[in-house]
Amino acid sequence: MKPLYSAVAARDTVHMKLIAAHLLKSIAPVFTGLALVLASVGHGGDGAPDAFVGAGPADGRHDEGGTRRGPLTISSPAFADGAPIPVQYTCKGANIAPPLSWSAPLGAALVVDDPDAVGGNYVHWIVIGIPPGAGSSADGQTPAGGTSLPNSGGQAAYSGPCPPPGTGTHHYRFTLYQLPATLQLPRDWLGYGRLRR
Fold it and tell me: How many CB atoms neighbour CB 119 within 10 A?
């Protein structure tokens, strides 16, 4: 598989460096958002590590504080795990978020990404603040109570699969990260313009 910019790099190394610098600048906010989300996993509001990170026991046992713990699950009625994503949820269709169903006993963040993207991982959607419990969303909807953060394209919204032609098969991961109920981000953090400066 040829890199996306191979023809440009062969012609003009300086131009390639400018493209790489622009790409890094445009995805830096996404990685900052992911770092904040991942750094918060497993920490309570007091900054001390939680005894629980990730999926919990299948029996839904309670921890010492009485909080119900159980597994994180996510699925879509629109397509099966490992199956092709229907066109309406891609850039070739309506480019809307697929319907989702989930269970997040302590609340969660959702990250939809493409690890096969040319130039590295591409984040299509980040949603934080998904409330504790089971839930679902309809076509084109952000999970109720959730807030979208900027994706790799700089939009605080869902951006469907849109791989460049000739780049092979791409896999899209819909991953839930369990977060403490007390997670607080600075109010101005959601302002994408501030992150780019």
Answer: 14
What single-letter amino acid sits at 106? L
Q: Could you tell me the sign of the dihedral formed by the alpha carbons of 106, 56, 174, 30, in that order?
A: positive
User: Which pair of tokens denotes residue 76?
Assistant: 């879509």
If one counts every other C-beta atom within 10 angstroms of the C-beta of residue 40, the result is 19
Degrees, nearest 5: CA angle 4-158-132: 130
The per-residue pLDDT for range 131-157, each reduced to its tens digit, is 999 999 999 999 999 999 999 999 999
Reading the block at residue 134, the tokens are: 């089971």
Domain assignment of residue 106, given as a range: 6-196
Whether 80 is covered by a domain: the verdict is yes
pLDDT digits (tens, 9 = 90+) for 108-135: 999 999 999 999 999 999 999 999 999 9
What's the CATH number where 153 sits?
A: 3.90.280.10
Residue 1 lies in a domain: no
Number of domains in the chain: 1
How far, in Å, are 139, 169, 193, 197 from residue 154 at the CA level?
A: 22, 24, 9, 13
Does residue 106 lie in a domain region? yes
Tens of pLDDT, residue by residue over 6-16, are 222 223 333 33
